[in-house]
Amino acid sequence: MKICNAEAMKMIKSLEKDLERIKLNEELNAVFSYKEGEKKILPEYDYAKTRQEKEEINAKIRKIKHALAIANTVYKIDYFNITIGEALVYLAQLNNEYDELEELANRRKITRHITSNGVLEYTECAYEPEQVKKDRKEIYAQICKLQVAIDRANLNSEIEL
Q1: Residue pair 130/64 in contact by the 8 Å Cβ criterion
Q2: In this prediction, what percent of the chain has a pLDDT beyond 90?
Q3: DSSP letter at 30?
Q4: Beta carbons within 8 Å of 152's beta carbon, 6+ residues apart
């Protein structure tokens, strides 16, 4: 069965939700309490069946993630001429750079304050905050282009399951 990467990622999310449901059921039903002299009312829980269900779901997730990993190393994003995998790494790098510039851009060029002994002290940026704001805007535009390219690639590339 062939599906696009985006569908595969949705399948993984759905399977992970199934695992969460099984885990919650296990938490609620794996142990039970009763008072002395009362009849035990056993919850609907089967340890072996639960382990088997979790392993089957995990196996499906592994298979899909493996196929995605392979696709991410092969499928190239035309505009950037890099693979999806490289694009994901590049996107993380750009986001880190954007966060760093965000911090630098929010500083004033020069500030002053009075020290504890009454001396006026100045703090000045060794860079131009306005230039940082321009660079930050360019990086944000690059992030947007890259994210759209990744999304498009995830819709256009297919994996075999």
Answers
A1: no
A2: 89
A3: S
A4: 77
